[in-house]
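Quick entry between incubations.
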Amino acid sequence: MKPFSLDRKISALRGAFEAGLAQLVNIPSVSADPAHATDVVRCAESAAAMLTAIGATTEIVATAGYPVVVAMLPSDPSHPTVTIYNHLDVQPAEASEWKSGAPFVFRKIGQCYEGRGTTDDKGPALTALFAARLAREAGIPLNIRFIWELEEEIGSPNFAAFIRARRSRLATDSVVVSDTIWIARDRPAVPYGLRGLQTFLFTLQTHAKDVHSGLTGGVARNPIGELCQLVADCYDAKTGRVKIPGFYDDVQPITAAERAQYRQSGFETARYKKAHELGSIRPHLKNDADVMCAIMARPTFEVHGIVGGYCGSGIKTIVPHRAEVKISTRLVPDQDPKKIARLVRDFVRARNPDVRVAATQTLAPFLGAREGPYADAADRAMKAAFGRAPAFVREGGSIGAVVTMQQALRVPITFLGLSLPEHGYHAPNENFDWGQAAGGMKMFVHYFSEIAKIDPRRPRGR
Amino acid sequence: MKPFSLDRKISALRGAFEAGLAQLVNIPSVSADPAHATDVVRCAESAAAMLTAIGATTEIVATAGYPVVVAMLPSDPSHPTVTIYNHLDVQPAEASEWKSGAPFVFRKIGQCYEGRGTTDDKGPALTALFAARLAREAGIPLNIRFIWELEEEIGSPNFAAFIRARRSRLATDSVVVSDTIWIARDRPAVPYGLRGLQTFLFTLQTHAKDVHSGLTGGVARNPIGELCQLVADCYDAKTGRVKIPGFYDDVQPITAAERAQYRQSGFETARYKKAHELGSIRPHLKNDADVMCAIMARPTFEVHGIVGGYCGSGIKTIVPHRAEVKISTRLVPDQDPKKIARLVRDFVRARNPDVRVAATQTLAPFLGAREGPYADAADRAMKAAFGRAPAFVREGGSIGAVVTMQQALRVPITFLGLSLPEHGYHAPNENFDWGQAAGGMKMFVHYFSEIAKIDPRRPRGR
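Done. Structure below.
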């Protein structure tokens, strides 16, 4: 397909794209809010109809929660298969925080599309759909499977069961996940790593109830004081440095090549602080590269909640009887959450054996390929569509569905996100724009064309 | 008055004492609960009538809150004056926690009187009233003034204003406070010291709102982590040892004589733990004397509340934006709360200048005389009444009214409490008993007789 021809075809699809996006955005598919349960299902049905309309074989697969939409276009056993993951459920939205006052009403403002879900992740999902239609029209010899989840914003509680139950029917040569954010508008970003997660609840009870600080203060053990000491023993709050022996043992060092990529990603600390509304950052992070590495490639230890004693207004002179603290560690390759959980337990037991440690949530870190045929395809596709080679970076967050697909499908996973920092991901006035949609369609068509040439060594999907 | 004669007279008063105590206990004078406002006032009126009935000149003095009952018996300018402080308001009570199911109904069970307020402080107040009646009948040349507060259980918010406004009319040669607990039934205790109090609120806000621990974890400052570190910097939670420079500078060392008294006080750590329902005590306190000194004569640093981040069930992977911690220091002579507040502020500013420190409540420590004419009188009176010399000890708690009276009246203050550990002070099934009431009357009569002989160097009360 000639570039000129592709650009013209994409332009011609603009009206259809906007109509489709409007239709999906006007359905408030808030998975976190049971009041929107019928909307979530309705959104799955609308999306399935759109997939059917471009010729895909579509199925709405029931789970223990909300369904998953699965579609395939075409389904030729002589072609390789790529599976594209998006999600169609959205974050909640508070109308009073939106300029429009109506988060679930699609608004077109020039090149810009406003409404909850435009960039996360309905816009990128539809971009991939239209790219698949173009790829089909151009005769690219590739089967494209869509997996559109409707529970991503609530932590994908049924996704692993869905994938495992259908593993054989979901056989694929590669996976694309299109739900990530570039670091800057002028520089595409292709993430290749995600942090994992191991969370803990530390609980210490020293008495049956609160006791009087006059009658017992100085003698009674104080569970808040002891938990504060334990937290201070676990990590240096100023720098974030974890003091638990062995914690950093399996951390893969960042290579010079990775660091060079990060530096060229367009990352600016000032913009990052503004985007995330950060008041103050750790003072030992001296430059952009330090900040990037801290987010992308270093594990963390964070206290994300603490409570104990009297927390109302004024004074209540007690020695508290109980306190608890919620901890989460973000983990990076090759840290093993199970090993980290053991290290933390052992450390706490040695320091304060009365503290109860519960390991509450576990997610492995993910590291994809920065090189090889799929990374090369992503590099060339982004360059062709956006005029600039992408930066290969990592994400600081964790996406459960990615680890699930990696473990079940065992094929390369590539992140081809289209969201920009100014799109207001998870924020009021969330938006997407035609520039990213049109560029995204072009990028996907190029990518499909590139990966159709890769000779997969694995059995092909049907 | 012959001992035999006094014992007989006291026995003869038992019916009247029980009737009076029943009348007061049946009025739920819970100062903390606005629903009981009329009960509190009714209690003041009943008590005033009892004082009038024994011939005292009685007044119900209005304050900005609940009134104070003031009475004088007789009022002879040629006699010295003693002022006896008690309070008639009571702690709240949960009916379901009481064996009787009715905390505000007086019950006589053999020698025992059960009901909220029996031991704290209606029983001791009436004991002093009946002793004053006996002293009057015996012609002891002493004016006895009663000050019965009705806001003690809510921190005496109007007591200082009351005392200051009437200072000249309240002139007295000495004060007795009768609202303390013995350490053991078989050994009277006369406290001569109270700990003071300086409380603080530490607040740290690092962001405008909670931020995402994946996108910002490792970079964003964590206010909970930093406050935990600050608490750990302030004190060693295991031993309670305060690390703030200068904190212990003005602590009066405990003398060998004091320590000997503590050891003979009947204190037993096991009983103390049971009485206060303590689960576990600091492990470095190896024996009863260590524990006693820690409560009575050493200052403390306690975290009495902490809150920050997400405290609900499950996990919310945030870096919190704000945390706060409530601290109280119990102080001992000669520590100055203002100086301690300055040391804490300076220490926090040096460690973490972003933490806001508010000094929220201040109360000076109190140290009375362990020797001299009033202590000797207490010693002899307790011995005469209970057959055993009292232990001179200190109290770990703080009583605002005592410091107020010391500063305004500038006369010796003696603690002549009658409550026993098994009386359930502030607890369900609170009780008092005829043994302590009868012994208390005898003790007070002896004490009045002793102090009537002291030649006061100060102007006498009228």
